[in-house]
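Batch manifest, entry 17 of 40.
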Amino acid sequence: MKKALLLLAASFFFFSCSSDRMVKSPVDELVRTMDQEKNFTIVLYDMDIEGSIFETYKHKYKILTPKPTGEEVQVVKDNGDTLMVAKDTMMVSYTDWYEVDEKFFNLHSSDMGMEIAHKRDGVLKKEVAPAGYSQYVGNKNYGEWRTDSSGNSFWHFYGQYMFMRSMFNLATFPIYASMYNDYGRYRSMGRPYYGGVDTRTGNARYGTYSSTTAKMNPSFSNKMASNSSFSQKVSSKVSKSSSAAKAGSRSVTSSAAKTTRSSSRYGTSSSSSSRSRSSSGGGK
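Output type: structure tokens
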């Protein structure tokens, strides 16, 4: 009996140590494999929790990488002026499942469908933002700010690049200048922005519980709806603060504005596709 208890205690100690082990962030691994790329965006595409007593945390990522074609395309602006912009193809890849440690999972539990890292013109930043906000919204090579009938300024992708709205899951809501300005303000404070409150649902416009994420990855949304155990586990990881869940004010520590300069070739994906688009050059 005593021997059995000792074995049980030893097993518990082993599994406890194993559950607390530090698993290197797959984002760091992906960034390293894409060292030669000057521009890319890493989006949290899916997440999962396996096990009951000893839980395993997993992530799956969507990676968007522009590839120059050396060509230019003419676009027509709202005022009738024409503009020549560089033309690229956009490579879209989905990774397999990666195991992550609990701390990293908790950090990004609110960030489904959000970009959690990007590189622009060789500068890497591990920041949480609505997908596409860091490089494409506000970028004059892709679109322009227009005014609607109510006098609100909103972002409009040029016709040739309208597909980017769905590629970055930006078609659910208009992107108003006020939202983009709020994003910039949160970013300057090292905090992620979730788009404010969706008045139809009471949830944030972007992130884990948003309708944007439900459209991006219906299987995750269905799993949240049908698997109460999984849903409760995810819910327990997400901040209960209304400011974090609705307005986007969660403080960021390890993911806030870590900046390095380098340039990557990406190699680990389960599937990929490409679309034509304008170059990632140009400021906001």
